[in-house]
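To fix ideas at the outset, we first show an illustrative case, written as a sequence plus integers encoding its fold:
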Amino acid sequence: MADGLKIDIDTQKLLNNLDDFEQRLRYGLLMYASTEAENLEAEMKAKRPWTDRSGDAKKYLTARASLPSKNEIEIKLAHGVRYGIWLELANEKKYAIVAPTAKLRGPGVIEGLKGIMNSI
């Protein structure tokens, strides 16, 4: 006759570890998104389709990562000059850089996030 197996589980410790894991995961995902944002910003600055006059349009192109809520990661690409909207929309979008960069590189960023999540 076999003896019974007894397993004690400290559920509070398990819950604490899950909370810690969630925080570490969010931080890790934010680090990934921040790195990607830096890459996107550099790419926009390097590949801008206009000729600089003052250099401000290039200088103030930005990409920033954030965690706006518990279940969201966000990377915002933006112009920092008032006339940036015209670069994006006027002249048949000939001078656009924000939207084309997001469209071209966005899927790769998402795939990278999926890769991180799938490796957990």
